[in-house]
Structures are given as C-alpha cells and as structure tokens.
Design a protein that fits this description.
There is one protein chain. By secondary structure, this protein is α+β, with helices and mostly antiparallel strands. Helix content is 43%, strand content 14%. The protein contains 19 helices and 13 strands. The longest helix is centred in the first third of the chain and has 17 residues. It starts with a helix and ends in a 9-residue tail after the last helix.
Length: 439
Amino acid sequence: MGHLAGKDIYRKLGKKIDGMPSRAPWNKTLYEVLKSLYSVEEADVVVKMPFNLSSLERIARITRRKTPELQKVLEGLSEKGLVVDLWVQGRTLYMPSPMVVGIFEFTMMRTGGGLKTKEWAKLFHEYMHGDSNFYAANFGQGQKISIERALPHEGSVHPEDFTEILDHEKAHVIVEQSSRFAIGICSCRHEKLHADKKTCDIQLEMCASFGAAADYLIRRSLAKEASRTRMHELIDSARGLGLVLNADNIQKNVSFICSCCPCCCNTILGVREHGYPGTIVTSSFIARIAFDSCTGCGNCARDCPIEAIAMAPEKNPDPKSKRKALPVVDSSICLGCGVCTLRCKPGSLRLRKREQRVLHPETNFERILLASLERGALQNQLFDNPQSLSHAFLRGLIGGFLRLPPVKKALMSDLLRSSFLAFLKKAAALNGQGAFTEI
C-alpha cells in the first residue's frame, strides 16, 4: 500500500507542476525525476501548498501541518531548489519551483558530495528531448511568452540604430542597475556534460544572477557571490567566446543573464532542434547584410547558434571576384543576438532595428501571468489554494473561460493586455497577494 500511495503522490505532484507557468507533461521519465528528487513527505507538502508566494503561517494553515515540522520540510526543499524562498516585505515567502526556471536549473546547479548528478542529468535530458513533448506543450500553439530573451552583443548594432537600444537591452547596464550578484554552474552545460552530450569546451561557471535571485542562490549554496566587476568581465568573456546572451524576459529587476552555447543551451536547442522559435524571445533587432562589402567568407553562417544564416550561391557572380556565395538570413527565426557580427571583418553584417519593437513584460509578475494565460494555467495563479473547494470551483469555471481561443487572444492583444494586467495587480493586492506583484 505504501508503494501505491507513493506513486499516487508523485502523480499528484506532476499534475501540480504541470499547472504552473511552464508546463511539464506527465510521462514515466517525469515520474522517475520526481521520485529521485522529492521524498514522499516533501511531495505531499508541495502538492498541498499554494501556487503563489505565501508565508509559512498561510502554508501551515492550508496544509494543516504544525509550523515547526513544516518549516523543516520547506527548509529542505529550499536547499534543493524545489521550493523558492524569497525575502519580501520583511518576511520569508515560499513558492513551489516550476520545471523551468526552477526544478531543472536549481537541481543541475547543485554541487557537493552525495548527489545523483549523472542520474539527474540523464533523466532531465531524456525528459526534455525525448518523447515527453515538453517543448510542444510550452510552445506548440505559438506561445510568445518565454522565460528568456536575447540581448544584442555590445557593438553588434549598426551605429544608425544604436540610440534605439533601451537600457533593459544592454547587458552592462543591467549589471549597473543591480546591487547583488552571483555566478553559478550553467545548468544546461552541466546536464549535457553528465548526459555525455557536451561537445564544447566552455566552462561551467557562467550563470549570472542578480538581486533577489542572487540572494536566494547564494543562501542556498547554488551559486557564489560575485562582484560587479566580475559580472562585467563575464559578459565580455561571453562576447569573446561568441556565446548568446539570454536574459530574464522582463524589463525591470532582471534576475539572470545566461551565456549560452549552441550545443548545450536547451532554449537554443528548442529553436534549432525542436523547431519552436518561441523558446527564446528575440531582441528588437535583426541581422542585416551590406552585400556590397560582404566577402562571402561564411563566418556568420558557421557562427549563428540557431542556423538562421545559410550561404547561397551568387546568381550572377563577378568573374574577377573570389566571392562565390552570399549569406541569407532567415528573418523568421533570427534572435537578434549579434553573434553573427562578431567575426565579420569588413563589418558587412550588423543588427538593424526590426520593423516593430519587441515588447517584453515589465516584471516577473506580468511574465508569470501572461505565460500562465498562454498555457492554460492562469486560474491556478488567481485561485492558488489547492485545498479550498471554492478555489477549486473557481479554477474550473474561470479556467474553462480563459482557455477559449477568442478570450485568450483578446487578453493577450495590445489593446487589452495592459488593462488586464493592471486589474490583476489590483486584485492580487486586495486578496493579500501584493508580495506576488513585487517579484
């Protein structure tokens, strides 16, 4: 009976995680992941605790557990990155970790002895890139709200468009706007290393975090504190190595910048290998070629991390010229990261302003709600108590309404999105969830 009860609780845990802003489709591999990471008691607590940031007292009331023993369980979960504990408004608040950014990243950022790192790496790789349909579940319906956005490398934007770069699109400015910093192991690179899939020689310690995220990672020994100078050096190093800079898909209080290589990064692989461009939100710039000065060397095509540039034979080649092919940019998938410009000696390839600026959510609060709306999980954020019958009724009623394509399309539109988010922010404050709007 204990075996059956344990299996049942992991199925409930899988359903809980699948109801968060990043979907996690159930399959046998996910069961193995959850069973390896969570004890039965830990799984039971996460299943019963609210979806949103909540105080210890609220979680104790909802889960009907005594505060001292509950705090011990939450402490253990936080140490493993399976629950995030943040210091907000003078108190500690807890929230279950989603699959990404969360369970996967924090598990693969752990260091020390006694860890099942190789086992976890192989399970995560099988889950994300096997038959779970993980990418399809999150981006298969054209979803546009992802956890990451590309940052243009310094010097990659054409001088005429340089003034169009906003502060949240500049990696070095993001560093200057932050107050605490941490560097940890790149979870994707660590996973690929232990899953025997890493083909690059890029170092592991390149995951940069800021502010409250850095505070959490440092407290939980998932990353080490770093100086502002070290963060600037890390960004310059990523440029020198031709890595993609991917940042938190928000404008304010950016919490991370990843230095991504094409062989390891799961979001890059989501575009290149799985065919879902939405896994990385583009910058407001796109690669453009000045053909009169292009030598046709092909460096840009070789360097593009998502293979958005191909070399095509010239239609009417000049017999006196050594140039036999010209680069062609696939504008439908170009990230606007600027990696392709870094080795262009004649400067023929530069990023230019897109016809329409890419709009990113202002805060994590907005990103979480919009991502949840796209993935049919917004009702869990609005009525987050899994133990309440009234919340369960409202989740079913409102969830069905929000999943209607015309409703979802209208709320995601430029016309209604701002008003809808403003309404939800006021509602969160009235329901005592004002802390949720600050993350």
